[in-house]
Amino acid sequence: MEFDSGYRDRLEMFAHTMALWYKEYEHWQSRPRKRMVRVSGVWPPTDRACTQWILHLLDCGAATPAARTLHNDDSSEMMCCDGGSMLLLTDSSGLPLGFDMLPRGWSTSLDVGETKGSDDEGVGAVTQRMLGLLRFSMEAPLSGRLPRLPQTLTVSDKKLHRLLRKREKSLSRLKVTLRPEAFGGWMPIDVDWETRTACIKAFSMRWPPTYYCHACKKQSFPSQLKPCPGCRAVLFCSDECPPSAHPQSSPDLHRSHCCERLTVYMSHSAQLANLPFTYAKETTTEDFDLEHFLFKNKLNSGYWLHWSLLVRSPRFELHSGLEQSKDVWLSGHSEPYGHLKEEANILLGQTPLKSPSPSSPLVSWSQYFSWRALDLASPVASLLSSTLSIYYIITSLVPQDYPELNVLKKQSLKIHIIESYREFHTIMTFWELSVLLPHMTFELSFFGERLPQESHEQQLYLQKKSDGVSLVSSALGSQKKADKSIRVKAYKRAYHMLQVPKPDLVIGFRPAIPLHDSWLSTLPRLQSMRVPAYFCELSESTCESSEQVMSSATGGALSCPTINPFHCPLRLCGGDNLLPWYSNAFIFHLLYKPLVPCVRRPSNEQAGGQTNPQEPASQRAVTAKHSFAPELPKMTKKERKQAARNMPHKRK
To answer: At what angle are helices 365-372 and 381-392 packed, to 10 degrees?
Structure first.
């Protein structure tokens, strides 16, 4: 049973979910009589969590090429709204409930209608769109919750507010009260309507995790899905897709051992959630809202742009300009930690008087934050997870799995990082390696087809000078001598397509080996190099699927995945399951297939204990098992004497 929950692009899932909802909304609009659906003859209950709903007006310009790529599979009216406006209905917490598109020139038609003092066709059409959006959002909210009603409705645009004031009878039939005034822009969350004073609070959209049925792949929300009764991990449509309904599309659904295995995976949720951070209780729940967490902590700049769905939009300047400017891909590193100024000063400006001993390394977030004098309430651990994972691999795992390498005594390390897009765009965080291991110099080489085209075969330097740490390109030149530096190289190619010097270590973050065919060529390449290769995955299920690919591609295997003590504290929610997904949650390394032995040579143990220094201790028993010499028949005493006489003797 394979899952791809943690690897789906959240922006595409967001756009696809909106398109599906809008298709249903268009179908509802085409019905001749649109009445409010009642359950057992009773109106839906009032939304007690957010009694106030807000109708926003958003201007929509021409879509960028990056945005058009999301629309290639949909031909509805929603995709033909360039130059128009959007009606967006949300609750007071920012959760979207529905939306509709207004055609270009609707504002002019309203002005003409108000000047004439009559409700022409354009005025009536806009009013009906607002009322229709409100009714359908009550019946089928975009967020996937059950039908419900608001108590009050607030409109942000004054023109639209005047239109609804004329139709208050229609609103009263829906049991909705229109607020007396309109507020421009985003509506503040808390408003005292008696005194007409607003509590100035920022307003931001929220988006719950999107889930889908494991059998039919239909996207939905947790309230509309039902977990498997056996493992409580896999989600199905409540009435339409029970586990036994799709044997042809998911043949693994009937295997009883799948539920047993997934139950074991689910039992590790508590261990993964056992983190020392003050916000861990919020960020490790099954319904964790990442966007709300980022907004609440003002994490909307710097490297946090690679985490957020809302700020990483197709119109965002840093991402949309990558194709236009040659050196734009080097931007975005001036303030890598964004709003976390104090953490940035500690990590990039201060060096502890005493570094952790390589023989007694740091093995938990608590130890690291204590050594670095960081507050456990700081969310900076999410950005440092990959860097600390490399440190943990070097100081704890490699000495255990490859003791012959003596990696802790090396003065320099060459590390190849494969298919790690986010890590390449957060290069400044890797400076912490030189602080944790000051006796080593590092050379980091990034490989991946998703890297920026301009970065191919470029060489960068992380340098620390008197004014702090900076990222410098060798092409731009830097004549000032740095106290210490980390060399960074980039290759926009698949790893198996390049011939580069053999590294000391290969590391990959979120490799998704079962989902990409390129690994069928990369894994044999690593097998031929026989270099220690470690990978950080999101879940145990992906590790299991990766072992199957490794076995079929090379005949080798994977080590047993272990929980990474420096995994990211932000849980990844959504998909077709409720398994605990975290970035860098589990670590495993490749167990290469033993070399083909020579039948006339004795085994490693018979040859005096000489072993391959690149071979882990757990694999030597496998190698010795397959490399023994064939047993010879026993010789009689007479045959031994005859053989001794026939042996040649050296002359004295």
So the answer is: 110
Residues near 77 by Cβ (< 8 Å), separated by ≥ 6? 26, 101
Do the strands 52-59 and 152-155 form a parallel or antiparallel pair, or are they unpaired? parallel
Q: How far, in Å, CA of 182 to CA of 550, rounded?
A: 61
> Which has more confidence, 93 or 130?
130
Which residues, listed in sequence order, are joined to residue 633 by a DSSP beta bridge? none
Q: Residue 516 — pLDDT band, cuts 50, 70, 90? A: confident
Whether 373 and 346 have beta carbons less than 8 Å apart is answered as yes
Long-range contacts of 467-473 (CB under 8 A, 24+ apart): 468/348, 468/349, 469/348, 469/349, 469/428, 469/431, 471/330, 471/333, 471/427, 471/428, 473/327, 473/330
On whether the CB atoms of residues 9 and 313 are closer than 8 A, the answer is no
pLDDT (0 to 100) of residue 560? 94
Q: CA dihedral defined by 455, 456, 462, 467, rounded to 10 degrees? A: -30
The two tokens of residue 382 are 């999410």
The pair of three-digit structure tokens given for residue 85, joined into one six-digit string? 């406006």
Strands 197-199 and 211-212: unpaired
Query: Dihedral angle at the C-alpha atoms of 152, 158, 161, 162, nearest 10 degrees?
Result: 140
